[in-house]
Write a structure and sequence with these properties.
The structure is a single chain. The protein is 30% helix and 31% strand. The protein is of the alpha/beta class. The chain has a 3-stranded parallel beta sheet with strand order 1-4-7. The mean pLDDT is 86.
Length: 132
């Protein structure tokens, strides 16, 4: 392995990190709205839920409960990569009238559709990695 190839690899990693940061910044306003809409102030300030700018928030009437220690970016909605979805056109949809419970980390990938009825409850059991 030459020094030039190591430098190229370093630039590739830096490029990926910059792209990831850019995507988080694009979704920042939606992330802030989502956290303060659903969570108590003492939890919302940690921004435990990151929401992509590609997520359509069709309805946010329900409730979210996090039954785990709160920390930043423990739940991702609309991020990630799946080869069967076209990243330019696939978007996630959030339509919740009922209750959503997170029992740990969760990653709901782009292109996912979440719909919970008024009397419905959706529970995500944290598995430490991508679980949805």
């Amino acid at each position: 392995m030459t020094i030039l190839s190591i430098m190229r690899e370093g630039h590739r990693n830096l490029y990926k990190k910059i792209c990831k940061l850019f995507l988080y910044l694009l979704g920042l306003s939606k992330t802030i709205y989502f956290n303060f809409k659903y969570l108590p102030l003492r939890e919302a300030v940690y921004l435990p839920i990151f929401v992509s700018h590609r997520v359509l928030l069709r309805n946010c009437d329900g409730s979210i409960t996090i039954e785990a220690p709160i920390h930043t970016r423990m739940i991702h909605i609309g991020y990630g990569y799946a080869g069967i979805f076209d990243a330019a056109y696939a978007r996630s949809i959030w339509e919740v009238y009922g209750d959503v419970i997170f029992r740990g980390k969760a990653s709901i990938g782009h292109g996912s559709k979440i719909s919970v009825g008024e009397k419905g409850t959706l529970v995500f059991h944290g598995g430490g990695g991508d679980n949805c």
